[in-house]
Amino acid sequence: MTKTGNYNPTIGMETHVELRTNSKMFCGCPADHFGKKPNTQTCPVCLGLPGALPVPNKRAIEWCIVAGLALNCKINKASKFDRKHYFYPDLPKGYQISQYDEPIAINGFLDTSFGRIGIERVHIEEDTGKLQHKKINGENLTLVDFNRCGVPLIEIVTKPDIHSGAQAKDFEQKLQQIIRTLKVSDCDMEKGSMRLEANISWGLDWGYKVEVKNLNSFRFVDKAIEYELKRQRQILEKGEIPNQETRGWDENKNVTVSQRFKETASDYRYFPEPDIPPMEFTDTFIAEIKKKIPKLPAEKKAKLIETYKVRGSYAEIIVSQEGLLELAEKVFDIGKTKGLEADALAGILVNQKIKADTTPEKVLKLVKVKKERVGDIGEVTKWVDAAIIAMPSAISDYKKGKVNAIMAVVGRVMQLSRGKANPDIVKKLLEDRLK
Amino acid sequence: MKKDILSKDQIKHIAKLANLSLDDKELQIYTRQLASVLNYMEILQEVDTKHVPPTYQVLDRTTNIYREDVVGECFSQKEAISQGKKIYEGFFTTRNVFEEARVGNRTLEPSQRKVNDKYNAILTTADPKGVVGHKDLFMTKGIETTAGSRVLEGYIPQYNSTVVSNFEKAGLKTKYKLNQDAWGHGSSGENSDFGPTKNPWNTKKVAGGSSSGSVVVVATGKVDVATATDTCGSIRMPSSYCNVCGIKPTYGAVSRYGVIAFASSLDCPGVLSNSVENLQKYFDLISAKDSRDATSQSESREKKMGKLKRIIGVPMEFLGEGIDSEVKKIFLKAVEIFKKANYKIIDVSLPHTKYGIAAYYILAPTETASNLARYDGVRYGNDRSYFGPEAKRRIMLGTFVSSAGYTDRYYEKAARIRTLIIRDLEKAYDIVDAILAPVSPIPPFNIGEKVDDPLQLYLMDIYAAPASLSGTPSLAIPCGFTKDELPVGMQIMGPRWSEEMLFELGEEYQKATQWHKFRPNSKEMIYDKNW
């Protein structure tokens, strides 16, 4: 049953981000639920008591708009909430208040190092409670805590524009940077305030997709996608179609496993939430919000490259860590007065993993130390010799004219030096040696 | 559509979506009954709704109702878990979600609840010194609240509804919690899981529903005021059947916070009393914006009505086929009273009246299936096997008409018909101040007479549907008796937020008549005067 024969890795990401508002999405309970005693932050609304009614949190709505705008989305002027129905003990009302056909934001994009990824939608919804599974007195029970229930979530859904695990990883890292810059969420994957799911297939024409959950680190995103693509490819090459299902990433075995999860039939029976009047956003209102958006990582990176002539790879790392950019700019400005190149200083910041709370003076002192260290050409030369012996094919490629092959050897030297060597000097030494 | 559209397998699928476990007999019955109801709904297909937008809410175009991001009070852990059946170290517990659900349906033990009064109107006596009776849909902190369903038997709410709080703030304490059709599902009062309420005018007859207990305690003078709710006639119908005055307010006039939801876009909490004058007093007490109910915050509430035209409409569609001749005669006599009071009476047409029931019985069950999804027995109450037959029927119906592949034909279609019904009324109110209509096509009927035919019972709501679907107010008042000495009521309907005018009209009528003064225990008055 070959449908296309075309193998095109096709991946879409769904990312849930918990907003760091003071209160929950539809009631006044605190939104900060991490590590609290079970069921101590609930009220009639988030506990789904009979007769309770939701009233939306204004700030959460605004922050969803902020996120949408930061991801280059169009904001729907008319938006509304809908009920999404399924039965699960962590969902007290039997439906989740979410958004169906009029999400707050649509049609945006985010540029990754591997190209542009389309953003299908950004919408707002409420989080569920938390389940634990435990054997108590010989009985298998599920324990339910509703502290997290009703915490505002935004869901960011990409178009199926992603083609590799590395690209998905890059997308999610950039997304995290953006959301953190906006200060609407701490995006802490360990605490679950950023949760990732990947929809993976070898192309939409094959007529299936596999959803992979439980991707709680960027590394796992990459690994799980690559694993899953391989697994599906093997099935497709046998002439079969992989099951459309939900799988989870098993971080111990490095495999995805089929999940017996949400045993309910999936017909969510969406309909407009009758308890909440619709939303309307005027152009002025959207413009006001737009004004408040801080400079995003992509803009900052561009500034570093253009103004300070820092190489892209350094700039990217500098903008990705909170506070590092501010330090870097100070260091570059002082460095300039001393005739030090910003790119070299950026190299120190990046390679020596300088923390954002370091003073610029301390960083500049490192320049001297470094100079001394790299001045010891004898030691570096030893590493260079060892690398040349270890990598004959790269050397011969380089000699044949593949200039870039030298970078692999530089990498090897850096490895041998445990990062102490200055790559520029290493490269120069190598070039001299191989003339 | 052929009758066999519903196979037993489909019903099984719907039951699964609705999280109900049905036995074979139930599957069979629901397959037949739902098919008959769905067949009736085919009537909607004759209306062209291509260019009609759907109506999901009636809110005077209110938008952007939010709360500020401020932390408020929470339950203590003790309060939060107080109603859970199985608690473990502060957690609610439930059967392990990875294990298969127990299949099959056990037969429920009969309820141990005892009957408190000869009409079976009172479910709980709270404070004998209290003065208000509350329908058992109103959450009363610390006082059992059941919604008339065994699912909530024994449930002690952790909070008060806004309406109950407002009464308490005015010093009016809760005396009774009152019987009702479970969840508000019914127009006769027979669908309570704790037995039908009896009509004090004739205990063989139904009291009318769903606010059956509420009208009985007012009719029999046990309280001066009782709360009730009207989703499609649940205040007006029992008022009419027990000779009581009731106001079904504008949708959004009275907060729904803490009122157990039946159909959220239609539910209107209101009050019952023995005269319009009293009714207005109590209505004023509870009619207010509530920050906890986003649908109670329409700005139009503040608008004053324009000058009255002194023209009253009588919808011809209500007086054609299906109305009992005696009811019609009594109603037309009531119309004469307004004529004598110098109102111009004209015929108005509400051409989409006949589609009202079909639209209503798609929209309301869809919402009720959703609203009843929270009753899983984990945090409070009993599990879903405790739902009574009518609740199960409506959950099944609502789940079906909103399920994948059927929404366009049913739910969306009904939402568009709703728009047409609203337009009918808007057109009428351009010409008339108010509309007079009977409440029920027939007088109170015998208990048990119609229980096997849900569709016949659904059709009883036909005159209630226009005001409900349009979110407009309607005042039900007594207007006479049949020769069998059974009360007949009429409704005075008006545009949104016209309650004040309705009360004026009602008072004017009650100044000219005595019908509202008759009590079940003083029937002799009926023939004293010939109205």
Question: What would you say this structure looks like, in words?
Answer:
The complex is a heterodimer of chains A (435) and B (531). Chain A has helices at residues 58-70, 165-182, 218-237, 283-291, 297-308, 312-320, 324-337, 342-351, 360-375, 377-390, 392-399, 405-416, 423-433, and strands spanning 10-18, 74-75, 78-79, 82-85, 95-98, 105-112, 115-126, 130-136, 139-145, 152-158, 194-201, 210-215, 246-250, 255-258, 271-272, 279-280. Chain A is an alpha+beta fold and 435 residues long. Chain A folds into three domains: 10-290, no CATH class; 295-375, no CATH class; 377-435, Arc Repressor Mutant, subunit A (Orthogonal Bundle). Chain A has a nine-stranded mixed beta sheet with strand order 2-6-7-10-1-11-12-13-14. A three-stranded antiparallel beta sheet of chain A has the order 5-4-15, with no helix packed on it. In chain A, α6 packs across α8, α7 crosses α9 (360-375) and α10 packs across α12 (405-416). Chain B is an alpha/beta fold and 531 residues long. Chain B has a single domain (7-59, 73-527), classed as Amidase signature (AS) domain (Amidase signature (AS) enzymes, Alpha-Beta Complex), CATH 3.90.1300.10. Chain B is built from 14 helices and 15 strands. Chain B has helices at 8-17, 24-41, 77-81, 162-169, 212-219, 236-242, 276-286, 325-340, 356-371, 389-401, 408-431, 454-459, 465-470, 499-512; strands at 87-88, 91-95, 122-125, 132-135, 174-178, 198-199, 202-206, 225-230, 245-248, 268-273, 311-315, 344-348, 434-438, 474-481, 487-493. In chain B, the strands form three sheets. Chain B has an eleven-stranded mixed beta sheet, with helices on both faces. The radius of gyration of chain B is 22 Å and the shape is globular. The N and C termini of chain B lie far apart (49 Å). Chains A and B meet through α1, β8, β9, β15 and β16 of A and α1, α3, β2 and α9 of B. β9 of chain A pairs antiparallel with β2 (91-95) of chain B.
